[in-house]
Amino acid sequence: MTMTGATGGLPGRAALALLGLIVGGAFAGLALSAWRQGGDVAGAFDTYLWNAARFTLWQAALSTLLSVVPALLLARALFLNPRLPGRGLVIGLFALPLAIPSIVAAMATLALYGRAGLLAPWLGPLAGGSWPGVFGLSGILLAHVFFNLPLATRLFLEALDAIPPDRWRLAAQLGMPAPSRFRLIEWPALGAALPGAAGLVFMLCATSFAIVLTLGGGPGASTLEVAIYQALRFDFDPARAAALTLTQLALTGLLVAGLMRIGAPLTGEANLTLSRQSWRPAPSPFERRLAMVVVLAGTAFVAGPILAIAVAGLRADLARLAMEPDLHRALATSLVIALASALLALALTLALLRLRLDRERSRRVPRPGWLEWLAGNGSALILLVPPVLVGAGWFILAVEAGQVRHTNLFGPVLVVTVNAAMAMPFVMRLLRPAHDAAAERHDRLAANLGMSVWTRLRLVDLPALKRPLVAGFAFAMALSLGDLGVIALFGSDDFETLPWLLLARMGSYRTADAAGLALILALLCLLLMMAAGRAGRQQA
Amino acid sequence: MRTFLLAACSALALAGHAAAADLTIYTYEGFTADWGAGPAVEKAFEAECGCDLEFVAVTDGVALLNRVRLEGKATGADIVLGLDTNLMADARATGLFAPHGISLENVDVPGGWSDDTFVPFDYGHFAVIYDSETVKTPPTSLKQLMEGGNGPKIAIEDPRTSTPGLGLVLWVKKVYGDKAPEAWAKFSDRVLTVTPGWSEAYGLFTSGEAPMVLSYLTSPAYHIVAEGTDRYKAAAFEEGHYMQIEIAARTVKGKDNPLAAKFLAFMTGPGFQDIIPETNWMLPAGKTDKPLNEAFSKLVQPSQSLIFTPQEVSDHRKAWVDEWLAAMSR
């Protein structure tokens, strides 16, 4: 018996088939609508579509510029001043936005910079009268930079950390002045990391949904994804949705292809491994003061919205909120969905990892076959198709099948599956090293003992993979808890999750309630992300 | 795994499925709000029929039609309350509404009423409401509003979801005709935000975030009666005001529910109509027992009622809303 075994390949193939079904079903829905109303789809490539496409790119470009340039300064300031007071805290703070759902960040932006935000009393006089608030582009940019400035900073910090210490030493021995040191040592490292970081930030902003939906405030500041959502939820205009989706697909396709070409990371998860390297150039007093100012400003910008959401959340009538049946229902739904999608993500990932390894071992040629490649990379391809697009395709199918009624299973099942699929690229990265190492150690023995797949899973794999599994589980749960993608299309009074409830409260400008909900949601996600981080670290 | 998923999802579905009421009415959010007509209407009708009435609210009138269209014949609604004459032809074309089968003798709207499916429950004229403390020189015509450039900002509703939002599109079309796209282009800088429904926009206005809002000529009556202030006023427009007649109908599902026809008949009488003026802040479209609060006599009267026929709106709604979208997304 080979170690591949017929049963060993089956779960993996089934997992791939499920991923294929999710994306394929979405395309089928869009194709169906395109076929039914062909002429209308062509007609839907109109001014509105081009305006939305232009705004998508424009806001993403601005967000990238505003995130990446200050991040270069910040990373440099943090790197060159290892003894800066509170440096560790600042770096820890910069990991926080990644753990916060984007709808919470949108709420946080309003709580700080909004018309009734914490800063409004100070901003008002500056604006000459009353503070006009941050509807539209300004709000979108603030929220995007809040997310991506810390991400880019951490990526650049990693690049600087990777510079071999002897270069610094050499520079010091040669008495190199700061400008030449920057040009010859720092810039090559930063410049090499720049396209990847900028590309990732651009991609994240071009596909951002919840932030644009809540802060956009009208067709003037609407991205393609928000336009897709509105075409379906507002109008039910499937022809327009199909045209918009095709445009968005072409856009993300080009972006992902571009990112892969420049070798950029495809996911916004900066697992910072800071080397405790001993030797760094001593900054001049002027540089040190400058670094202080830069770090202070960066810290204030990132900490501001987080503090604002805490303050506004605590000011909300939490006691009343906690007693609301709406909240209980949404919380229960969210938890069940997050639990189910995290389990599903783990199961699918394990199946794919097994399949990939089996194919790798059984091949006799140096290049991986298509099945091995798909098992290893298929889950990352899901990033090509943002959740709203998947949701849109299935929404059209559901309508065609007469399934848009509140008491059916269609919505929940789809939300669980898509959330699981979206978490898979991350879970894959967490599990793969430990999984492959454990397989290396135990496969022969398990095969000799003739263990079945399930016995093996129970007795061998699960104990060996406990920590990465816990990390992956918590991470996937946090992602699902905070997600506002498919649920935005399928949610209703009878099927609501926490982010959906938050969206509804924000939509009806019940700001105090929304802030309270945002705080609860943020705390839940933070706890899970911290658990994931802990389990992940202990494993390493 | 799969068993677990199924179990989890069935639990979810069960948790979400409240006990079915005897009569389910889909309506818009402003109607069911605490201060809205919904709670009082529910109490009055339940006392009369000895049944359980349930309102299900969506953001606004156009979204209401979309929701019913999406649910199709499987809809949960017995009655849909909150469409208007602008949506009437489209609503009829869905085939999802059944003839009302009631006497229309109580119905009283400008121009009269004889439709066999849709029943009016109130009417009014769209208007720009402004805060007289922050807006010293309000626009006196639609032209001034649209072309006033840097004037005070306004919150409007999205015509893809909201009947006032659609009303503004039609109003502008009436006044500008083929020149509407240019007018929207000039207007777009003046728009503070576009909300999905009337209640969101009006919420922004009352909380002081928007100095002007698209609402109704009758809206100031709310502030006079409930808050004792005439600070919030309607801007009278020279070109006249677009009129809205709000309608309800029973669905093909509601046709089998005797309570649906009973409710429609109740809706045209004093039990319902007396509630409307001081909760929905619109003019009654049926028989009342109480005279109108005198606050209503202080309101701006439209110099002219503007309206398209339902068929005209149905023929052009998509094209006209697309014009709006193209101009507003610039």
Automatic annotation (TrEMBL), chain A:
<dbReference type="InterPro" id="IPR005947">
    <property type="entry name" value="ThiP_ABC_transpt"/>
</dbReference>
<feature type="transmembrane region" description="Helical">
    <location>
        <begin position="290"/>
        <end position="311"/>
    </location>
</feature>
<keyword id="KW-0677">Repeat</keyword>
<keyword id="KW-1003">Cell membrane</keyword>
<comment type="subunit">
    <text>The complex is composed of two ATP-binding proteins (ThiQ), two transmembrane proteins (ThiP) and a solute-binding protein (ThiB).</text>
</comment>
<feature type="transmembrane region" description="Helical">
    <location>
        <begin position="409"/>
        <end position="431"/>
    </location>
</feature>
<feature type="domain" description="ABC transmembrane type-1">
    <location>
        <begin position="49"/>
        <end position="257"/>
    </location>
</feature>
<comment type="similarity">
    <text>Belongs to the binding-protein-dependent transport system permease family.</text>
</comment>
<dbReference type="GO" id="GO:0022857">
    <property type="term" value="F:transmembrane transporter activity"/>
</dbReference>
<feature type="transmembrane region" description="Helical">
    <location>
        <begin position="374"/>
        <end position="397"/>
    </location>
</feature>
<feature type="transmembrane region" description="Helical">
    <location>
        <begin position="331"/>
        <end position="353"/>
    </location>
</feature>
<feature type="transmembrane region" description="Helical">
    <location>
        <begin position="57"/>
        <end position="79"/>
    </location>
</feature>
<keyword id="KW-0997">Cell inner membrane</keyword>
<keyword id="KW-0812">Transmembrane</keyword>
<keyword id="KW-0813">Transport</keyword>
<dbReference type="InterPro" id="IPR000515">
    <property type="entry name" value="MetI-like"/>
</dbReference>
<keyword id="KW-1133">Transmembrane helix</keyword>
<dbReference type="GO" id="GO:0005886">
    <property type="term" value="C:plasma membrane"/>
</dbReference>
<feature type="transmembrane region" description="Helical">
    <location>
        <begin position="511"/>
        <end position="532"/>
    </location>
</feature>
<feature type="domain" description="ABC transmembrane type-1">
    <location>
        <begin position="331"/>
        <end position="532"/>
    </location>
</feature>
<feature type="transmembrane region" description="Helical">
    <location>
        <begin position="189"/>
        <end position="215"/>
    </location>
</feature>
<dbReference type="Pfam" id="PF00528">
    <property type="entry name" value="BPD_transp_1"/>
</dbReference>
Automatic annotation (TrEMBL), chain B:
<dbReference type="GO" id="GO:0015888">
    <property type="term" value="P:thiamine transport"/>
</dbReference>
<dbReference type="GO" id="GO:0030288">
    <property type="term" value="C:outer membrane-bounded periplasmic space"/>
</dbReference>
<dbReference type="InterPro" id="IPR005948">
    <property type="entry name" value="ThiB-like"/>
</dbReference>
<comment type="similarity">
    <text>Belongs to the bacterial solute-binding protein 1 family.</text>
</comment>
<dbReference type="GO" id="GO:0030976">
    <property type="term" value="F:thiamine pyrophosphate binding"/>
</dbReference>
<dbReference type="Pfam" id="PF01547">
    <property type="entry name" value="SBP_bac_1"/>
</dbReference>
<dbReference type="InterPro" id="IPR006059">
    <property type="entry name" value="SBP"/>
</dbReference>
<keyword id="KW-0732">Signal</keyword>
<keyword id="KW-0813">Transport</keyword>
<protein>
    <recommendedName>
        <fullName>Thiamine-binding periplasmic protein</fullName>
    </recommendedName>
</protein>
<dbReference type="InterPro" id="IPR005967">
    <property type="entry name" value="ThiB"/>
</dbReference>
<keyword id="KW-0574">Periplasm</keyword>
<feature type="signal peptide">
    <location>
        <begin position="1"/>
        <end position="20"/>
    </location>
</feature>
<dbReference type="GO" id="GO:0030975">
    <property type="term" value="F:thiamine binding"/>
</dbReference>
